[in-house]
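Target protein
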Amino acid sequence: MKRKHLDHQIENYLRNTQNILELDQSIAEAITSIREKDYDQKKPYFYVLDDKSHLIGIVSIKTLLNFSPEAPLKDAIKTNVHITHSEQSMFEALALMQKFHLLSLPVIKQGAFVGVIEIQEFFEEELEITSKRKRLQIFQMLGILVEEGPTKSIWRKYIHRMPWVFCNMLGGILCAVISDFYEVVLVHVIVLAMFIPLVLSLSESISMQAMTVSIYLMTHKRQKWRKIFRYTFREIGLYVLIALTASLSVGLLSLLWREGIGPSFIICVSIFISIIVTAILGAMIPIILYRWKLDPRVASGPIVLMFADVITTMIYLSLAFWLLL
């Protein structure tokens, strides 16, 4: 396979397989089914599906022979299986196969098993994988492909990334506009201006942490966006604890500047509110981008930082304006 094809979707390279068994079979029925089918003897295991074509697990011939013929097939299958999705790229499949030394990967589309992607797809010549040494050499070659990745021209990379950099620039401009609007606050209460970098950095850090977890759940754990939503709202308690600790610490520290309880209260409350709001946004933005068919790994960071900066600046200065002036 040429490197430029690594960006293509997996579904363009799917292979059908006859190595399929049904979950409700017994071991004896499964073995009989294998004998009757024109299955691929080079493949070491079979894919077990339920009546809705959902992949339940895999099982090998050797495992079947070690069970009693009367035992249900579900007792013999291995359910912890690495999978990939049809809309993913060949490069993502390549990285997964290289990491876990897999010769093939089951492919899922809208929850249903639709075929397999095989290691042969990444090589133009016919592979010989009969020995452990040969397989090791193959995965070493795959490691080089993973490290180099699908090649793109500098211009294409620029077009792909630069629009998201403009998000950071826009965020900075909006923060400047907000600061100018509330200039009177910063002039009268100097300590608030001194703590702006710290207040912003706390919101940015927590929002980026939440964003990283969200992207990890999508790209590694393959969680559905609804599950990530539920996970995020279960984590609100964690965000509250972090916000409470950070806001009290910084608020108490700001008392050392002897500007009174008012500015310290503003700093404390602003940090508390900003961390919770931006953490939730940080977790949600990758999901929204994914739903809009945009790459969350590239676009999420700049967008999350833009919203974190603008929202935190607005909360911080508007709260100070209304409570102090």
In short: Residues 185 and 321 are 6 Å apart (CA to CA). The chain has a mean pLDDT of 83. The longest strand covers residues 112-118. The chain is about 60% helix and 10% strand.
